[in-house]
């Protein structure tokens, strides 16, 4: 046997078992017919190591932008294990101290949204938000049916069927229909590919105004909520212009439509502020959060809402349907709440949102130097959430085919840097590379990411 990696097994044996048994997320397993399956075994800071002992700068925070505080945090391990020893689990209508303390902490971070509902994944948090919005209006206006949810093209809100129905990434929806009814799409807010053929600032922010048109067409009495990612992540890294969300909010208020912001990726310092919506000075009615909430050390998500929304669910004792009849079995995992509490303590104590802003500025400046390369259409992002849109031709902005993006990701990996790319999300436009490293990354780490990208993009022959 070669060197043991885990469970008494070496890398070859793990790879054999991998091929035999795994059915991985978002993976075409055919690729493993002719290449070794990657197996990650340990991490420290922003560095991860695979089963063959190779080290990488993790430019993706655990593959899906989750590990905000970085790897190897002893205090996280301690907080989780102490709680598990004391009481690992209790759910249903009974609370536990970590849950109470986490709710208090989140309410302190978002004082206008002091009611905290815990579950375990981003999809679940969004499903809860939709259910809350629908029931809220049914309690408020029993004679109307305000139930529709409006979402944007290119945004992603999750994998469960209603969360998928609310996602504007059509390629992810293929073959899973019929999806739940009552979800209506509006255009995205990416200036580089303005769906209205306009140019900012002379565009009247038509992308935001499209919301009003759809509310009017659908009928304001039928629309419950609009859901947006404050800065679209997987759909191509899209930070809208400053005027966009204030206008969206104004339209929501005018038609009594709830504004749900999905901060599953953008929360907890990722974009240089604690929450992504704070860049825009808006005041959402519901926020969902997950990944950076416990940095992936434990699976936890939250749906937080205004008190005025919560108050609608205060039913009479004999009323069996007026309260929120929803549950999440593992939302009661006390170790998850303990992990989230310690994670937030670290983010605050180490000022990781500020660190993300500073390192993000440095990363953007370095990547802007690549803007002269023939394939680089646009570099965009906020904080440590950055994308590079690749084009075959700068003038026509025709998207670079996915196979070239796959080549760049593979070349960067060969240089010891993990970056990501859009994977079959939006028809014809899977042409954005991204990086979102742990917020503790330093300039040397960022230099490695930019050097790997410069090398890989420079070598690309289109
Ligand atoms: N919302 C956004 C913005 C996401 O990026 C994701 C996951 N990538 C989700 C929701 C769904 O989260 P989960 O995979 O934990 O269900």
From TrEMBL:
It comes from the Bacteria. Gene3D superfamilies: Aspartate Aminotransferase, domain 1, Type I PLP-dependent aspartate aminotransferase-like (Major domain). InterPro entries: Aminotrans_3, Aminotrans_3_PPA_site, PyrdxlP-dep_Trfase, PyrdxlP-dep_Trfase_major, PyrdxlP-dep_Trfase_small. GO terms for molecular function: pyridoxal phosphate binding; taurine-pyruvate aminotransferase activity. Its cofactor is pyridoxal 5'-phosphate. Its EC number is 2.6.1.77. Pfam families: Aminotran_3. This is Taurine--pyruvate aminotransferase. It comes from Sporomusa termitida. The lineage of its organism: Bacteria, Bacillati, Bacillota, Negativicutes, Selenomonadales. The gene is tpa.
């Amino acid at each position: 046997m070669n060197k043991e990696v885990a469970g008494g097994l070496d890398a070859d044996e793990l790879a054999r078992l991998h091929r035999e048994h795994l059915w991985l997320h978002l993976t075409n397993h055919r690729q493993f017919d002719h290449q070794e399956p990657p197996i990650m075994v340990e991490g420290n800071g922003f560095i991860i190591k695979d089963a063959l002992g190779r080290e990488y700068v993790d430019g993706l925070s655990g593959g899906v932008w989750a590990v905000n505080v970085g790897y190897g945090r002893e205090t996280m391990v301690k907080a989780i294990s102490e709680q598990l020893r004391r009481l690992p689990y209790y759910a249903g209508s009974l609370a536990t101290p970590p849950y109470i303390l986490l709710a208090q902490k989140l309410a302190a971070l978002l004082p206008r949204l002091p009611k905290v509902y815990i579950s375990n994944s981003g999809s679940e948090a969004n499903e809860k938000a939709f259910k809350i919005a629908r029931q809220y209006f049914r309690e408020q206006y029993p004679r109307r049916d305000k139930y529709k949810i409006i979402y944007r093209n290119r945004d992603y809100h999750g994998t469960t069927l209603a969360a998928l129905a609310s996602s504007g990434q059509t390629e992810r929806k293929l073959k899973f229909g019929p999806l739940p009814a009552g979800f209506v799409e509006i255009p995205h807010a990416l200036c580089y590919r303005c769906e209205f053929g306009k140019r900012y600032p002379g565009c009247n922010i038509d992308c935001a105004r499209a919301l009003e048109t759809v509310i009017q067409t659908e009928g304001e009495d039928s629309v419950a909520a609009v859901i947006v990612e404050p800065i679209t992540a997987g759909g191509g890294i899209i930070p809208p212009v400053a005027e966009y969300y204030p206008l969206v909010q104004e339209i929501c208020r005018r038609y009594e439509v709830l504004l749900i912001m999905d901060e599953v990726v953008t929360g907890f310092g990722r974009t240089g502020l604690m929450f992504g919506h704070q860049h825009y000075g808006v005041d959402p009615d519901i926020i969902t959060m997950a990944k950076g909430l416990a940095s992936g050390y434990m699976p936890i998500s939250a749906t937080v809402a205004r008190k005025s929304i919560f108050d609608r669910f205060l039913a009479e004792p004999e009323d069996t349907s007026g309260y929120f009849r929803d549950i999440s079995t593992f939302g009661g995992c006390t170790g998850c709440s303990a992990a989230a509490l310690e994670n937030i303590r670290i983010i605050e104590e180490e000022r990781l949102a500020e660190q993300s802003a500073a390192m993000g500025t440095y990363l953007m400046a370095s990547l802007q130097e690549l803007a002269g390369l023939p394939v680089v259409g646009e570099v965009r992002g906020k904080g440590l959430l950055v994308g590079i849109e690749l084009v075959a031709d700068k003038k026509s902005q025709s998207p670079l085919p996915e196979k070239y993006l796959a080549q760049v990701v593979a070349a960067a990996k060969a240089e010891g840097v993990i970056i990501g790319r859009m994977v079959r999300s939006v028809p014809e436009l899977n042409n954005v590379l991204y990086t979102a490293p742990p917020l503790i990354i330093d300039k040397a780490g960022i230099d490695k990411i930019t050097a790997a990208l410069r090398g890989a993009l420079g070598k690309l022959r289109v």
